[in-house]
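Progress note, sequence design subtask.
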């Protein structure tokens, strides 16, 4: 007999809790952090372009 069958099924409240936390994490990452990261990368790209133009 395997350990999984001895433990029994996962309660529905655990699935709901996990799904809620996972959904919140996805929201934070994709809605908040990705635009911030893209903005930082765009600012660095513009700064590099300006530095190159100043050297020429």
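Output:
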């Amino acid at each position: 007999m395997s350990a999984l069958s001895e433990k029994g099924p996962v309660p529905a409240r655990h699935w709901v809790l996990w799904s809620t936390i996972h959904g919140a994490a996805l929201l934070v990452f994709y809605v908040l952090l990705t635009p911030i990261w893209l903005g930082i990368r765009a600012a660095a790209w513009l700064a590099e372009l300006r530095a190159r133009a100043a050297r020429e």
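The chain has a mean pLDDT of 91. Work on this subtask will continue into the next period as scheduled.
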